[in-house]
Design the sequence.
């Protein structure tokens, strides 16, 4: 299980408290689909993903981006229990959606970059370290039920 | 991975024109950030007295790295040939594990997003990510 310092807990809660989920989620997912285009393989039913403008304007992408951020919030509220928190989602991504878990790292990196651009100088090295540790722990929990 | 398209090269040159004035600050923050976020990278700098973000050694190294990136931008049409000397340095003297190139690249991108949030669009992001990956590949050319 992941050990969190008080500083890390406070940092992560603080980041999420200040985030505009409905803007950051869509921005992170669309960035992932643009920067790592092979991830589009999981979104063939989303409609027009033909170019960056289409992706950024796609309402299905936006909706899904918001869902992802709200699901991350569950992790923030259950930092000591991530494996159980994400067990169902892990099964879903493995058995139903058939997502290669390496992709979780790709969207994590895009989310880090979007949060960095929103927080500016407040996104210090220490804040980045805590945020990336949290995302890595979520990614690990999401990969747990894969067989 | 893939080679750089004409569109990629244009995007890299365009964003470089915007950020190059701040390249020393970018480099300093990227190296400082790398040492904080990825503590295993500190193993390459055991000879430095001070590994804190404000240390002169960190700034000097950030400046050195970004001078290399600037050089790579100017040689974007032939990175393998243009970065030959740097590749030999990294292969025979520094022997930095190539996994670390990815780590430092990520930190550079994070700093660019912080300092230039409007300009660091997804299209610029993908071009810079590809470019830094191509630079990393050129640097690892002489490893074995």
Sequence:
């Amino acid at each position: 299980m992941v050990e969190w310092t008080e500083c890390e807990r406070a940092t992560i809660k603080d980041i999420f408290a200040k985030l505009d989920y409905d803007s950051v989620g869509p921005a992170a997912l669309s960035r992932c689909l643009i920067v790592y285009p092979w991830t589009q393989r999981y979104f063939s039913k989303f409609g027009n993903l033909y170019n960056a403008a289409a992706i950024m304007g796609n309402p299905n992408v936006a909706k899904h981006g918001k869902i992802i951020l709200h699901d991350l919030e569950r992790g923030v509220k259950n930092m000591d229990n991530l494996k159980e928190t994400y067990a169902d989602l892990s099964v879903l991504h493995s058995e139903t959606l058939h997502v290669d878990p390496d992709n979780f790292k790709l969207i994590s990196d895009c989310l880090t970059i979007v949060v960095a651009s929103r927080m500016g100088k407040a996104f210090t090295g220490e804040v980045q370290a805590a945020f990336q540790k949290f995302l890595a722990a979520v990614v690990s929990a999401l990969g747990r039920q894969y067989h | 991975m893939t080679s750089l398209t004409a569109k990629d090269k244009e995007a890299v040159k365009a964003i470089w024109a915007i950020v190059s004035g701040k390249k020393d600050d970018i480099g300093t923050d990227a190296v400082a950030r790398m040492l904080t976020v990825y503590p295993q990278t500190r193993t390459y700098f055991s000879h430095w007295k001070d590994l804190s973000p404000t240390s002169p050694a960190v700034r000097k190294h950030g400046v050195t790295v970004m001078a290399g990136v600037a050089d790579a931008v100017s040689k974007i049409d032939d990175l393998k040939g243009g970065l030959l000397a740097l590749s030999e340095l990294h292969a025979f003297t520094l022997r930095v594990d190539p996994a670390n190139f990815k780590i430092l690249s990520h930190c550079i991108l994070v700093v660019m997003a912080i300092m230039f949030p409007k300009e660091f669009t997804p299209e610029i992001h993908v071009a810079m990510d590809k470019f830094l990956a191509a630079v990393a590949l050129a640097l690892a050319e002489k490893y074995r």
User: Anything to note?
Assistant: Residues 59-77 of chain A form the longest helix (19 residues). Chain A touches chain B at residues 30-31, 34-35, 52, 55-56, 109, 112-114, 116-121, 123, 125-126, 128-129, 132 (CB under 8 Å). Chain A has a mean pLDDT of 96.
